[in-house]
Amino acid sequence: MTAPTKPPHSHRADAGSDAPLALPLQETVIDWFDENARDLPWRRPEAGPWGVMVSEFMLQQTPVNRVLPIYEQWLARWPRPADLAKEAPGEAVRAWGRLGYPRRALRLHGAAVAIAERHGGDVPTDHAQLLALPGIGEYTAAAVASFAYGQRHPVLDTNVRRVFARAVTGVQYPPNATTAAERKLARTLLPDDERTAARWAAASMELGALVCTAKNESCHRCPIAALCAWQLAGKPEHDGPPRRGQTYA
Ligand code: SF4
Fold it and tell me: What is the model's pLDDT at position 245?
């Protein structure tokens, strides 16, 4: 995850979609992000696309505070994909430490090898090329294209899906697996302007991570409380199918 730099023109200029709620949501959440974004190493310019990609692999199933030290060690040892690609895969697993789900280390190593072989050692900018790398799915390709390259893609992680479910759909939790309706909603809410869209992706994700959390959401300090469908409906309890266990929110 990273915070793309603020667009030179105000995001107020691009209404972006047909949904009447889209513009006030975009404006309010991006304004909140401007003030409240965490300073994380993969959001700094020096992280570059490789730093963003490494962080996305690590953050898939592990919380930020556990990722931070391993991320720093990893980038110090392998500052470019080609540095990792030269190592044996077992070294990647060893360096993964206690992050859990070490298969991710092997997948990241495989992606580094493919980047070295197919892309001259540079993380590709093109979404389809990112998606074609081993170990990279829809979410990670969109996240890297958006956070590393400032492109316009719906980025639907568990945090964003929860925010959209509550604020727009008016239910407590999103479905267990991402649906076509959620993808459509994400496209509807996406600002037209590329850089604003990338900022919106990071901002809506941060709101879900810090305020609209899975349990004990902090509506009293939420910037979109006055717009939130679930809050306005009196926060009805989840009545869908039983929720799958979540590793973390
Ligand atoms: S008002 Fe509450 S439920 Fe709605 S988006 Fe904000 S934190 Fe989430």
Answer: 56
